[in-house]
Amino acid sequence: MEDSPETVVLSGTPSAESSRSQEFNPYAGGSAYQQPMIPVPLSNDNAKFSMWLGISTWILWVLGFIVGCTICLTPLTSIAGIVLGHKGLENAKEMGQLGKSEAIAGLVMNYLSLIILVGSFLLGAAIFGALGLSLT
Fold first, then answer.
1. Is residue 6 part of a domain?
2. If exposure means fewest CB atoms within 10 Å of the residue's CB, which of 13, 70, 75, 107 is most exposed?
3. 67 domain-assigned
């Protein structure tokens, strides 16, 4: 006569009528060795990219005065850095303030760069407008 297969209890508590109630039960959570969970470090990529775009914008400003052709890239990097900085601040609120300082640094650098860019265009327009009026 064949023995019927033994039923495995998945709840972690062996039944009282089982003769193997004292044996190791892999489904019982308490006695089995469990590898500790290593927390995965979260990162706020939008905040980091905003900060790096702010740094690259200021490098382009310095190179623009030396080389003369990189200033045309500063509006692109500034606007992208501002957008990513605001997204980084939103992510920082969701992630428990992770990356908030990088997002703020990126926003400050990119907004200052954009203000300088707009101010230089207005100053150039004013200078050329004054020169144009005096020539006529």
1. no
2. 13
3. yes
| Verdict on whether the full-model pTM lies above 0.70 | no
pLDDT digits (tens, 9 = 90+) for 4-16: 666 655 555 555 5
Q: Measuring CA to CA, which residue among 68, 78, 69 is closest to residue 119?
A: 78
List the one residue out of 53, 37, 41 whose CA is nearest residue 102.
Answer: 53
**Residue 103, amino acid:** A
Residue 77 lies in a domain: yes
Identify whether 24 is part of a domain.
no
Domain count, the chain: 1
Collapsing DSSP states into helix, strand and coil, what is residue 40? coil
* Burial grade of 84 (CB within 10 A; 0-12, 13-18, 19 or more): buried
